[in-house]
Amino acid sequence: MVDNNTDIDFSGLKAIFFNGTLTKSPEPSHTDRLIHISQNIMNMHGIKTSVIRTIDQDIATGVWPDMTEHGWEKDQWPEIYKGVMAADVLVLAGPIWLGDNSSETKKIIERLYACSSILNDKGQYAFYGKVGGCLITGNEDGIKHCAMNVLYSLQHVGYTIPPQADAGWIGEAGPGPSYGDDREDGTKEGYDNDFTNRNTTFMTWNLMHAAKMLKDNGGIPAYGNQRSEWDAGSRFDFANPEYR
Amino acid sequence: MVDNNTDIDFSGLKAIFFNGTLTKSPEPSHTDRLIHISQNIMNMHGIKTSVIRTIDQDIATGVWPDMTEHGWEKDQWPEIYKGVMAADVLVLAGPIWLGDNSSETKKIIERLYACSSILNDKGQYAFYGKVGGCLITGNEDGIKHCAMNVLYSLQHVGYTIPPQADAGWIGEAGPGPSYGDDREDGTKEGYDNDFTNRNTTFMTWNLMHAAKMLKDNGGIPAYGNQRSEWDAGSRFDFANPEYR
Amino acid sequence: MVDNNTDIDFSGLKAIFFNGTLTKSPEPSHTDRLIHISQNIMNMHGIKTSVIRTIDQDIATGVWPDMTEHGWEKDQWPEIYKGVMAADVLVLAGPIWLGDNSSETKKIIERLYACSSILNDKGQYAFYGKVGGCLITGNEDGIKHCAMNVLYSLQHVGYTIPPQADAGWIGEAGPGPSYGDDREDGTKEGYDNDFTNRNTTFMTWNLMHAAKMLKDNGGIPAYGNQRSEWDAGSRFDFANPEYR
Amino acid sequence: MVDNNTDIDFSGLKAIFFNGTLTKSPEPSHTDRLIHISQNIMNMHGIKTSVIRTIDQDIATGVWPDMTEHGWEKDQWPEIYKGVMAADVLVLAGPIWLGDNSSETKKIIERLYACSSILNDKGQYAFYGKVGGCLITGNEDGIKHCAMNVLYSLQHVGYTIPPQADAGWIGEAGPGPSYGDDREDGTKEGYDNDFTNRNTTFMTWNLMHAAKMLKDNGGIPAYGNQRSEWDAGSRFDFANPEYR
After folding, report:
1. Is A2 exposed, middle or buried, given 0-12, 13-18 or 19+ CB atoms closer than 10 A?
2. For chains C and D, what is the number of CB pairs under 8 angstroms?
3. Of B15, B112, B14, which Cα lies nearest the Cα of B59?
4. CB A44: neighbour CB atoms within 10 A?
5. Antiparallel, parallel or unpaired: β B131-137 and B89-97
6. Phi, psi (5° rounding) for residue A168?
7. Do the Cβ atoms of C41 and D237 come within 8 Å?
8. Of B14, B110, C81, C196, which cross-links C169 as Cys (Cβ 3.0–4.6 Å)?
């Protein structure tokens, strides 16, 4: 069967993937394998993508935009943040450890949160108009638990979450092979998992569709959601229930 | 200060709120008070809204669209589901018990999940094109934990989650008054909480903006995300990493 | 290899298992199959066990000890609560739906919480001196997420959680067979999972050991943890940091 | 009112507290203030305590006992781990960021998990016989969510969790003062919170009682829970349900 092609033009969009693996380069990351599936689809449609393996970078720990102003010698986050702001799509990917997101994934969420007080020129949080997704790999349990936290965090700081914006792979309960590990028969673990493949594909397309729709519509309309206006006294038809 | 009005026309949109309180009518629900703030804004802009207090209804427990086909005498869900499908916006609201969502909130998530295999005429999950939000009240802890689960569940079955799609009120750690309870000075608990008021307002507007944008754009474009097409063999540029 | 037997005498202990499945009897419950492994070990050592499938019972929804005093016609919880109080061990078992505990599991947690204000004759919460565990089955994801909430809730109301007090079975990511389902080769899904078998066994023994130790030692010593004493003004060497 | 003293002798016990704050010394940590309440009670009863602020240490990120064997130049964890093994009580304390544990707290959980394959001389996981607790501070939401993950992780690697083993302080929903911050009237935020004070006191005493009980009883009895024995073929009355 041949895919009936879409004629939607996604060129001009940009996407950034973070990989919160605890494994430094050049050792391979299982999560990278899943990222590549999504990245590949985006690339085929003219979307510029980049992948940042956070543990390879000197990203400081903390909740300020630039930690060199708070006692850290180095901090690559301010530079990376420029890439986040340039991107229409952010995918936070990572491994599962003891059923939860890695400390590297948490560190990135903290740094995104640290920048959530920055406003765009309409007075909305700076991440408004962008879309977010999540990819998780582990050997046995926790995709949804991890994705729940990632997607919640992204929408909290201003990202839009399209339908079915997460995907992942885990094996049966207990220790076992990880995503893409060699099987005895020469195939790779998880690559034939229809659910993982479908969800990764759907997530990718929904991110693309939602990012394009938001871009074409000029982002989330700026009314009722501008922090600057609220702080200045606008209430956008909010009525205190005490006085209604 | 006067609100500068928006000229966006939201009439024609519909919203449904579920309240997962454990308190039966006619006793008041604290969560209802927060719902009314959001509902009021929507109503002022011509959106038709309805609120369903689930514990007042004969909604069966289970993971099938109609539980009368699975051993239950009564099940009002199939009727309620029609209202869910007619609505462009769904807000799942509820209380916190022991830091987590109530069993009533979980029951509604189970019933929504039960219907997630139903497809629209493009082959997408039936909830595609709709937007979801979350309102939580409690006396001390757990808004984000509860919202994390609610919003994750809604995006999983096909809802789009706009930015900052949750709001809530809790008091300081420990037992204490609930939202809207009388204070000694005649005011009401939480009604003067700027964070709760702002987040509820922003959530409401973002749901409205995203619902309108999706409606005006004909929903999420149907390419790369149709279950029927995937099952028929379309792969939408997904490439098995083993063969790339 | 033959088990070297233990000479510890566990007779006199009692255990209660709750099964939060959404499936009514007489249809089989996958979770029941895992419960039976644990129950069987306990029975072999003279522990009296009972299993309650909550969806078969008329257990009201709410956060009071007896909901017939709060608008419900029937409520079997007060009777079931007697069994909880008579038991030294409580295991809260259940299925995974959309990555989380079922609404039936949440209902039982709410009812246990509703009884957490009841004190024993030393002034401790009534569940002190008892031990708690958790068993979870699903087809693909969420054991740890579900167990996290169950075990947290049990310790919060007074249960002691011994080491490795949870176990479960899930299959690879995506829809698939459930625990104990027939395989084509005549074996049963999950029954040969060494991790599930080991964890279920370890959980069971740790519950037995901890329950016996607590019973032999007269429960958790009553000093520093009596709600009645605290409310009467005892502070047990707590010093307000402001005045230290 | 005077405390009636306990005559239980806790001397000989040791406790270690980890503080997962993102703030480096010498800046004050809000979480430290809560730790000191618990530490103070223990010290008064002859328990040797130590507090490690993890962000001040060169603790590598990863899931191996010694990361210098895996590409890291420095790693203080192997030295810190000796202190963990010497302690009968471990309290994992930390702040809340975006409703979840900090990346520093996650890093410590990863390192504890990395050591969970180490066995004691009975073949049990090395953390068996120790007890664990949790202290959380934040300005608005998330004590239970954070504690849920911490306590689950600790029991998973072998710690016993006594009743009510967590405590914390958060303020009302929204940004606001943190624990111990100065109020205008000269008092400190949260220090008069009866719930926080009581829970911190109860947690501390329950950790002390459970640690002493386990020590006096020689730890968790070694039968049915020895990884070495299971791997060698012992089954401790586990019966495969397929053959029962």
Report:
1. exposed
2. 209
3. B112
4. 12
5. parallel
6. 180, 180
7. yes
8. C196
Q: State residue B243's pLDDT score.
A: 63
* Domain-embedded: residue D4: no
The two structure tokens encoding residue D157: 């690697």
What CA–CA distance (Å, rounded) separates D110 from D125? 16
Tokens of C142: 């969420």
Give the rounded distance of the alpha carbon of A235 from its chain centre. 31
D220, part of any domain: yes
State the pLDDT at residue D243.
64
Chain B CB contacts of A90 under 8 Å are none
Asked if residue D113 lies in contact with residue D81, where contact means CB atoms within 8 angstroms, the answer is no
Q: Do B145 and D144 touch (CB under 8 A)?
A: yes
* Contact in structure between A105 and A94 (CB atoms under 8 Å): yes
**Interface contacts B/C by beta carbons within 8 Å:** 62
SS3 content of chain B, % helix, strand, coil (to 5): 35, 15, 50
Q: Is A134 a domain residue? A: yes
Domain count, chain C: 1
Tell me what pLDDT residue C2 has: 41
Q: What pTM value is reported for the model?
A: 0.97
Residue C231, H or E segment: helix C227-232
C-beta pairs of D112-115 under 8 Å, 24+ apart in sequence: D112/D84, D112/D153, D112/D154, D112/D157, D113/A97, D113/A98, D113/D63, D113/D153, D113/D156, D113/D157, D114/D62, D114/D63, D114/D64, D114/D65, D115/D65, D115/D81, D115/D84, D115/D157
Residue A118 corresponds to which tokens in the numbers above? 């920055």
* Domain coverage including residue B206: 14-171+178-231
B68: distance to nearest CA of chain D, Å? 33
First to last CA, chain C: 60
pLDDT of residue C243: 63
Give the model's confidence band at A5: pLDDT under 50 very low, under 70 low, under 90 confident, else very high.
confident
In sequence order, which residues have a C-beta less than 8 Å from that of residue D74 and are 6 or more positions away? Answer: D58, D60, D68
Tens digits of residue pLDDT in A170-209: 999 999 999 999 999 999 999 999 999 999 999 999 999 9
Task: Say what the pLDDT of residue A244 is.
Answer: 55
pLDDT band at A2 (very low <50, low <70, confident <90, very high): very low
d(CA B157, CA B115): 9
- Is B1's pLDDT higher than 50? no
Q: Per the domain annotation, does B72 fall within a domain?
A: yes
Partner-chain contact D145 B144, CB within 8 Å: yes
- To the nearest whole Å, the CA of C150 is away from the closest chain B CA by 11
Spatial distance between the Cα atoms of C21 and A219, rounded to a whole number of angstroms: 44
Alpha carbon C51 to its chain's center: 11
B140, B197, D220 from B194: Cα distances, Å: 17, 5, 51
In the predicted model, residues of chain C with pLDDT beneath 70 are 1-4, 242-244
Dihedral through CA D175, CA D179, CA D181, CA D182, nearest 10?
110
Which amino acid, residue D170? I
Q: What is the CATH number of the domain that holds D113?
A: 3.40.50.360
> Cβ of D155 and C161 within 8 Å?
yes
Amino acid at B122: K
Quick one: which of D62, D153, B24, D35 has its CA closest to A22?
D62
> Which of A96, A98, A141 is the best substitution to test chain C (most C C-beta atoms within 10 A)?
A141
- Chain D positions touching A109 (Cβ under 8 A) are 97-98, 100
> Interface pTM (ipTM) of the complex?
0.97
Mean pLDDT of chain A: 95
Residue C236: list chain D partners with CB under 8 A: 3, 41, 201, 205
Give how far Cα C225 sits from Cα of B125, C120, D191, Å.
52, 12, 19
